[in-house]
Amino acid sequence: MSEYLVAKVSDIGEGKMKEVVLGDSGNKVLLSKINGQINATSHKCTHYGAPLVKGVLSSDGRIVCPWHGACFNASTGDIEDAPALYNLFKFKVITKEENIYVEAEEQALKSGKRAPICKKAISATNTDTVLIVGGGASGNAAAEKLREDGFTGRVLIYSRESYLPIDRPKLSKSLELTAEKVAIRNDSFYNDLGISFHLGITATAVDTKSKIVIFDNGEKVKFDHLIIATGANPRSIPIPGIDLNNVFYLRTVQDNAKIKQAIGTSENEKKNLVIIGSSFIGMEVASVVAKKANVSVIGMEKVPFERILGEKLGAVVKKLHENNGIKFYLNADVNNIESSTVDSNTVGAVVLSDGTKISADLVVVGAGVAPSTDFLKSSPEFPLERDGSLRVNEYFKVEGLDNIYAIGDIASYPYHLTGETLRIEHWSYAKNTGRAVASVIAKNELAPFQKIPFFWSTQYGKGLRYAGYATSFDDVIIHGNLDEFSFAAYYARGEKIIAVATMAKDPIAAHSAELLRLGKFPTTSEIRDGKNPLDVPLSN
Questions:
Q1: What values do phi and psi take at 79, rounded to 5?
Q2: Are 275 and 287 in contact (CB under 8 A)?
Q3: Rounded CA gap, 227 and 127, in Å?
Q4: Where's the Rieske domain (predicted)?
Q5: What is the distance between the alpha carbons of residues 7 and 49, in angstroms, rounded to a whole number?
Q6: How far apart are CA 360 and CA 339, in angstroms?
Q7: Over the chain, what is the mean pLDDT?
């Protein structure tokens, strides 16, 4: 253990952060000061390595990553919000007169990330079983958090996937992936925590009276607590030709590999790729393969992302893609998919309702997703919504059922900021719902879920960040320059700003998420008059 002189006490103000170098080692730590206490933690986000000093620090001691909204406790280094998997290291701070010293081990400084401290011993006296159906982001987060919060009963995960939980957003960001490359954890991690995985198995029914889930291999598994985390399935399109070869969806590692194989590696003979859908999956796939294929995108809206981002920002995304060779067919409906003249079983073209024919060697369907809850339709006690989701309360408990929870993509929950019932399909949100339910079960902590949604997309090196959630909005107020892809967009409903989207304006999105959480966001009139949210302190 070494002690380093890193700064003067006067170098760091209240509510501020400072990145410092430890002597000649070149190692860095992040200093933060809250309520007069100086803390020292790892300096990079444990998710994708963003410099946390460029993020934000709230008065209740939350360090927020500028890239993807991961939150850490400044005092302990512990995760408070997803998507990070590891805590920050917390280092001892010593003040002598006007000097700040940090005591740290070399290994911790180089690693920068610390695994959560979990209860690893399963108690012989705790016979409770938590059964998690679904091995995605929310189910995995729930299992880990159960152990972190001290649950000593059995934790079982039944997943339809053939592999352990993966970092699914990466599937649309690269075609050079394997299950091992995108795995969240390895076998030994789960074994050490006593988390039992059962892979390649699909739930077919739930008997709520007997507390049993029935699976397609004939297993009947009894539970004390059931967490339904089955995620969503890509939506198909009921048109002729949708079942032809080389028509793909993107949900699994296998899907990713099939798309890569169909595109091939020849730069001289680029394949014609048609993407049906102009939202997240479609546009991210387009950006990944823009240099490897001739890409056409078909969308029903005027511009990409119109429903989520509005017409102004959608036009910005369209321009970004057109600058990289993507061709758009918008305000368009697909009539059918034609087979190839060479092989009648393989796609050859996509035909629009106006008769336009787009040559295609392969098609990727990115037409949204639907909750994976078909196995519950035979059980009338489950309150399925019209979209197939499950209505839950603010603790993600399924209405009318004891000890049964629904999380992630399948849950419709009461969003505290607007009072609406929302179903959100984003990675960080899914993980946060899993963590929340685990704390309800393990610690009986009935704290209403009040996280601010935060999601992101990177296309052609441009990072789009979005904080809040706007199902509808009256106006979009722009600060910055859309043509230069550098802006902050504020989504207004009356005098209330309910969401913020940014590009090249960090840390406005992260700061805005905290202002929304604290109820401190400026009014629509103030934003319209030019007020910068960064000028509003993050105090309770």
A1: -65, 135
A2: no
A3: 17
A4: 4-102
A5: 24
A6: 9
A7: 95
Q: Can you tell me the distance from the alpha carbon of 301 to that of 330, in angstroms, rounded to the nearest whole number?
A: 6
Reduced to 3 states (helix: H, G, I; strand: E, B; else coil), residue 527 is helix
Contact call for residues 335 and 352 (beta carbons, < 8 A): yes
Among residues 175, 137, 176, 127, the alpha carbon closest in space to that of 159 is found at: 137
Q: Tell me the helices (H) and strands (E) count for the chain, helix number first.
A: 10, 36
The dihedral through the CA atoms of 364, 369, 371, 374 has a sign that is negative
Q: Render pLDDT for 455-467 as a digit per residue (tens, 0 to 9).
A: 999 999 999 999 9
Residue 89 pLDDT more than 70?
yes
Q: Cβ contacts of residue 406 below 8 Å, gap of 6+?
A: 227, 228, 229, 389, 390, 392, 396, 398
* C-alpha distance from residue 102 to each of 5, 33, 74, 112 (Å): 7, 14, 15, 15
Is residue 452 a contact partner of residue 54, using CB atoms and an 8 Å limit?
no
Using CA atoms, how far residue 534 sits from 167, 308, 508, 512, 530, in Å, is 31, 24, 6, 8, 12
Among all chains, which residue has been given the structure tokens 């036009």?
315
Q: Give the list of residues 6+ apart from residue 344 with CB closer than 8 angstroms, or none.
A: none
Return the amino acid letter for 2. Answer: S
Residues 144 and 96: their CA atoms lie apart, in Å, by 40
CA distance 483 to 486: 8
pLDDT digits (tens, 9 = 90+) for 474-517: 999 999 999 999 999 999 999 999 999 999 999 999 999 999 99
Tokens of 373: 């809850």
pTM surpassing 0.90? yes
- How many Å apart are CA 413 and CA 383, to the nearest integer? 12
What separation in angstroms does the CA of 385 have from each of 252, 371, 388, 390, 422?
Answer: 26, 10, 5, 6, 11
Query: Can you point out the beta strands (E) in 302-415?
Result: 327-329, 334-339, 347-352, 357-359, 362-365, 369-371, 390-391, 404-406, 411-414
pLDDT tens digits, 175-209: 888 999 999 999 999 999 999 999 999 999 999 99
In sign, the C-alpha dihedral spanning 391, 397, 399, 401 is: positive
